[in-house]
Amino acid sequence: MTAGVAGDTVVVGRVLGPWGVQGWIRVYSWTDPPEALFDYRPWLLGEQQQATEILEWRRSGQRLVARLPGIDSPELAAQLSDQLISVPRDQLPEPEEGSYYWHDLVGLQVFNLQDHHWGEVVRMLATGANDVMEIATEQRGKVLIPFVQPDVVRSVDLQAGRIVVDWPEDWAD
């Protein structure tokens, strides 16, 4: 999930483009499970975060598709392509103890046990085996560190904006 926060909203998906001839849209979901995207309403579309309801949705094979009010042709649906889907933050359930939403981790500063400052988390990646933090560093450009608790990630302090990892500086060489 490459989600982000815009004020008090959270990006939970993206419009991929039109589907069919009646104005349906294909959507990509960053929620788990993917269908949970449709539990959050209204959707706030694009940079202007235009509130819109979902008239109906369904799976079409591996795709998630939805029909929105006022969108009744492929041409209108195409105008929504690549727009981000956000929802109000207060709609999300609180994560369990020791669990975090990716968007809460992006922007945190990462330090190792020796207090070496790795840099800032710029995005989170799903690899299948475990999640990975992409960290922007001053010296190395970017560094990838697995988000594996408690072996690698020793602590996360959202209030202080800090993650402590057991990842020595020489492991980046």
Outline the structure in words.
The chain is mainly beta and 173 residues long. The chain has two domains: 5-91, Beta Barrel (Elongation Factor Tu (Ef-tu), domain 3); 104-172, PRC-barrel domain (SH3 type barrels). It contains two helices and 14 strands; from the N terminus they run E-E-E-E-E-E-E-H-E-H-E-E-E-E-E-E. The strands form two sheets. Strands 1, 2, 3, 4, 5, 6, 7 and 8 form an eight-stranded antiparallel beta sheet that branches. The longest helix has 5 residues, at 74-78. The protein is elongated.
Shape: elongated
Largest sheet: 8 strands, antiparallel
Oligomer: single chain
Rg computed from alpha carbons, rounded to a whole number of angstroms = 19 Å
Short structural summary:
This protein is mainly beta and 173 residues long. Helices cover 5% and strands 44% of the residues.
